[in-house]
Specification:
Distance between the termini: 28 Å
Number of helices: 8
Order of helices and strands: EHEHEHEHEHEHHHE
Strand content: 5-15%
Shape: globular
Radius of gyration: 18 Å
Length: about 260
Amino acid sequence: MDLGIAGKRALVCASSKGLGRGCAEALAAEGVHVTLNARGAEALEATAEELRAYGVDVTAVACDVTTAEGQKQVLQAAGQIDILVTNAGGPPPGMWHDWNREDFIAALDANMLTPIALMKASLPGMMERGWGRVVNITSQSVKAPIPVLGLSNAARTGLTGYVAGTARQVAEKGVTINNLLPGIHATDRAVSLDTGVMKAQGITMEEATAQRQAGIPARRYGTAAEFGAACAFLCSQHAGFIVGQNILLDGGGTNATI
């Protein structure tokens, strides 16, 4: 299927690896020019070089996008943004009594306030041109809370509430905003959480991974490539009637009827 977005310009955050890279690569494969962002310059430039093989323009901006200066850098580098994919690593796991005010502020900055700032900067131009796509990478935890991920539960649910109203305010201008809710994917985040299970239970890494996979009806972790493909479809010309939705990609892991 031709997604009809060749020649569009995208900003994809946290895209040197993992789910962000999966999204950036899927867009580049469709002929979208991409601005990549991550904190680590070396991994970011390596990804940029690989994506240039698709014959598109790829700009790499190494900075902390959760800061005002970082946001300014990526927005200036990206120029006209037709497609915005927001993404940030999740806050550390723990228990309710582990977190203080500073922990919550950091989580909100990364997983709620930064996506909002980038949307506020990008939406006016999209609306003026009569077309735009925003995809926020959130988490399955906004559908069903994960106890050890309370910081993520709180911050990402706040973003979800913001998107619910905003998406319906901009849709008439040809701009859609939707959220993709990943479950466990084979990324560094999965390794980190598997390691936590391993240490907490005194088991091997293989046992920890198998234990968590057993809780997924698909009995496996997702891949960055299939996540990226879903993102690219939401950014396509065919997805203009999908507005303000929260779409799970979790292998059936969230036990819910709706």
